[in-house]
Design brief:
With about 110 residues, the protein is mainly alpha-helical. The protein has one domain (about 5-110): Serine Threonine Protein Phosphatase 5, Tetratricopeptide repeat. The protein contains 7 helices and no strands. The chain has helices spanning about 5-20, 25-35, 40-55, 60-75, 75-80, 85-95, 100-110. Helix 4 runs antiparallel to helix 6 (about 85-95) and helix 4 packs across helix 7 (about 100-110).
Length: about 110
C-alpha cells in the first residue's frame, strides 16, 4: 500500500478535475506540483496522464505529446502498457492534420496505429 500524503491528495484532486471536465483544475494542480520535484512512482505517472488528458481537453495537442514524451522517457515500459496513453495519442492523431516526427515516434513506441 502506498502512503497517502499531500502529494497523493493533490494527484487525486487533479484526477477529480478530469472526471468533472475541469482541465483548468488539473493544470493548476500540476503547476503547483512542479515545485515538489519529480517522482518516479506509478501515482506520479498516472497524474501525468491526467495532465496530458487535460491538455487534449483544451485542444493543446502539442503539450499533451510533450507530457507523454516525458513519461515515455522516464518509464517507457510502463507507458506502453497504458490504455489511457494509447487513447490520448489516438485522439491527437485523429485531431491533427500533420504529425511531427516526435508524434510518430511516440505513437510507434506505444503501439498506436497511424
Amino acid at each position: 500500500m502506498a502512503t497517502w500524503g499531500p502529494v497523493t491528495v493533490a494527484y487525486k484532486k487533479a484526477e477529480r478535475g478530469i472526471v468533472l471536465g475541469r482541465p483548468d483544475e488539473v493544470l493548476e494542480t500540476a503547476a503547483r506540483l512542479e515545485t515538489v520535484g519529480r517522482a518516479t512512482s506509478t501515482e506520479y505517472f498516472r497524474h501525468r496522464l491526467d495532465v496530458a488528458r487535460a491538455h487534449t481537453m483544451l485542444r493543446q495537442y502539442g503539450e499533451a505529446v510533450d507530457v507523454l514524451t516525458d513519461v515515455h522517457g522516464r518509464a517507457p515500459e510502463w507507458l506502453a502498457q497504458q490504455r489511457a496513453a494509447r487513447d490520448l495519442m489516438g485522439e491527437v492523431i485523429a485531431r491533427r492534420r500533420t504529425l511531427t516526427p516526435l508524434m510518430r515516434s511516440l505513437a510507434d513506441a506505444i503501439d498506436v496505429p497511424m
